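cron nightly-structures :: item 1 of 1
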Amino acid sequence: MNTYPIIFILDAGGTGFKFSAVQNAREIIEPFTIPSAAPTLEEVLQKLITGFHECETRCGQKAAAISFCFPGPADYPNGIIGDLENLPTFRGGIPLKAMLENEFQVPVYINNDGDLFAYGEALGGLLPEVNNLLEQQCNPKRYRNLLGVTIGTGFGGGIVINKVLLNGDNSAGGEINRHRNPLLPSTSAEDSISIRAVRRVYGREAGIAFEETPHPYDIYRIAMGQLPGNKEAALKSWNELATALADVLANAISLIDGLIVIGGGLSGAWPVFLPTLIKKMNEPFTGLNGSPLSRMETVAYNLMDPQDMIRFTEKSGKMVKVPFSDQMVWYDPTKRVGVGITKLGTSSSVAIGAYAYAMEQLKSNQ
């Protein structure tokens, strides 16, 4: 008999509520989605209640807790959701946690999707995979810190430091979308790193109205030569996304110093934007005296490129002698950060992160 608690999971977006149930870090029901749009707040909230009751039906039992991501702004520890752009019926502060706890009589935990994505990748995705490869290469280096970002309808992020999710004092840790946009300095980074940004640039370059632009997947295929269309405009749209994202990531990782993992609906287009992103992250500044200065103290590697992955994980360095003794110690002056794409899929990473977060909270409250 499986004694691990069952946690009901929700990945909430502006277009759909995706429900699942996780036990022992594995999904135990087929995830299902309920459209999130509704004309009134009461109808949206009823969709949430209906979805979690359906999880009960499919599992045949109650959950030990409910844990899910929901868009912000929000007071996540207290489960109060603020005014949402993609769910306009949420206004004035909606105490979602208390409502669901009243309905289901179990603890409810809510967090940001970027946070839970990063947490899932740190526990079961890119971070352990890279450390396993380092071990296989007999490289003593191990990574403990991770920046996870999601690019899709919006631009989100989360930070994990030595297996601890950074929430921040105001539930605002990892809110990477509020970085300044390097291409449009009066706007936020999200205006160049999102679905609407890819479509906007394609329309601008192709000379067509935004409403007539293809969806990003088709723009990706046009850029790759797999579909007819304006290839130059498609390449330009992904190049602008890569340029803006590179600047934000270079700034952010300088504070965190670890791995970077990218997820979200646009991450599947990595073959067309990731090489440019790595190149831009590694481009030097030019000092006032005209001399180059490294953009970061570290060097970025493309972990989706097999050769770059080998260079990233291979053992390097040398033995150096301890002064006034015969002792030798290993010294590797190379500082590397790796950038990869989600290993689990964004939704699965969010589910694992939500499960782990709930388990952590349940244990701390025992």
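cron nightly-structures :: done
The CA atoms of residues 92 and 264 lie 28 Å apart.
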